[in-house]
User: Fold this.
Amino acid sequence: MVFSSAIFLFAFLPAVFLLDRLGRDLRWKNAVLALASLVFYAFGQLYYVPLFLLSVLINYLAGRLLMGGGRRRAVLTAAVLINLGLLAVFKYTDFVLQNLGLPPAGIILPIGISFYTFQGLSYVIDCYRDPANGTRSFPKLFLYIAFFPQLIAGPIVKYHDIAAQIDARVCDPVRTEQGIRRFILGLAKKLLVADTVGYIADTVFNGGTGDIRLAWLGAVCYTLQIYYDFSGYSDMAIGMGHMFGFQIRENFLHPYGARTIRDFWRRWHVSLSSWFREYLYIPLGGNRKGKRRAALNRFLVFLCTGIWHGANWTFVVWGLGHGLLSDLEGLGLIPVDRLEKSRAGRLLCRVYTLLCVTLLFVVFRAESLTAAGAMFTALFAGAVTPAGTILLHRLLNPVSGLILLLAALFSLGIRRRPLPLPLSRVLSLGLLVLSILCLSRGGFHPFIYFQF
Assistant:
């Protein structure tokens, strides 16, 4: 069940919202959300519900042991190994077998396993650091991990950031309206923008003609697709959080307006980059042991970031590419700090960053390194072909061309004043109508990050 599906929009979400509002007691509201979250997950993969419940139970028991004292390091080690072991078995077994020349086991990836595993890990690590970060209530921990707006694709939330809201939160009309408008914005990003440019990107990546114009069009469209798809999901999650009284952190801060790769990662998928910083980069030593050690730590973090995204060498190379560029910036070998002192230099930095991000997303999107190589050949040595001209005219009709142009402009983080409330309401209503019309055309387009 995806947020942009008819069954979610017109049945599941309204039903859960009404049930939530029927009771004033937080125990009722928490029970409704917990049960709804379990139904939400079961609707997507009923046969993996036991695995999901086992993961929550393991982290709950580990937290209780860590709160009780005694052999705390052993408990933490066991919990980390079990969490990462489950993730490795279900996500990477086939990848390892194939690289060893053995037939794959055909394991189906449990939806959301990367996200709920990382939330569980953050919980047990925080309990180890301070037992006060834990809870003795299994229902509360279950709601924290299973809360359906962010269960499948984040943002990744820490328990101590949301624990107080589980115990006491306000569901007032103002916050509810803000949540609904934020949800509609995310829905429009997904259906009107991401799916439109995504169709162009899929066409190019799945059957490109080697035309240089198509190659660059496909690269740009995928860069826009993944941003509007994932930031749209995050907007919808944050909006639903408001609707139910929760404050979920921002996950995207206009990343395509970044001037460096390091700045890009302070803006892109903020909850994931913060997770790796707090639970891997800093424990490795961070930048406390000199520039060279900091460069090694960053490189290892980006390697793990690539591996986390998927069982394919393309994700590994994508992560290593970002790690290498971040290290070159940190060591001063790419002189972004000097360039940022002038207006022309800042512009050059933005072009450099956006170009690197786009090219690395080509690797991220490609089915294999061979396919990525073919795309790079088309990008830098492609010809202008008659077949490419025909396909280009078919893909860039007036509607898709306008959406592509507007998507590119707004993705750069153009500063704008908040709209007056009446105008914002009218705009939200218009976006909702357009989104429903788009949804009525049919087709199934899952969010990109559902595969992770």
